[in-house]
Amino acid sequence: MCLQKRSDILIRAEILRVLHDGPTGPTRLSRLCNIPYDRLEAYISPLLSKGLVKSEVSEGRLSYSITPEGLKLLHEIEEILSKLRP
Q1: Which runs of consecutive H residues, i.e. helices, occur in 1-86?
Q2: Which of 57, 42, 35 has its CA nearest to residue 27?
C-alpha cells in the first residue's frame, strides 16, 4: 500500500473541518488530522495569522476554533474539491 502525501492546502482544510465540529485542543487536533504534534504549529500558525482560526486559553488549556472567515474558506475548498473528484 502506497500512501500519498497530502498537500499543505489539504492539511489545512482538514484542520478547518475538524474545528468545524467545535473547539479542540492541540493534542486532539493533531491526532484527528493525523499530523505529528511537533508539526502542528507550522500548519495552524498561518491559519491564526489570517484570521481563519482563533485560539483561546480557558482554565489553563489552549483550544482552537474556526472563525466565520475560516468557515467560508472551508466551504469554498470543499466546493472546489467536489468539482475535481471523478
Answers
A1: 8-20, 26-32, 37-49, 68-84
A2: 35
Give the pLDDT mean for 15-40. Answer: 96
| Cα–Cα distance measured from residue 9 to residue 78, given in angstroms and rounded to the nearest whole number | 11
Q: Return the pLDDT at 86.
A: 78
| Side chain identity at residue 79, one-letter code | E
- And the C-alpha cell for 35? 499530523
Q: Tell me the domains of the chain and their CATH numbers.
A: 8-84 (1.10.10.10)
Task: Tell me how far apart the alpha carbons of residues 62 and 29 are, in angstroms, rounded to a whole number.
Answer: 11
Q: Return the closest-CA partner of residue 67 out of 33, 36, 35, 44.
A: 44
61-70 tens-digit pLDDT? 999 999 999 9
Say if residue 3's pLDDT is above 80. Answer: no
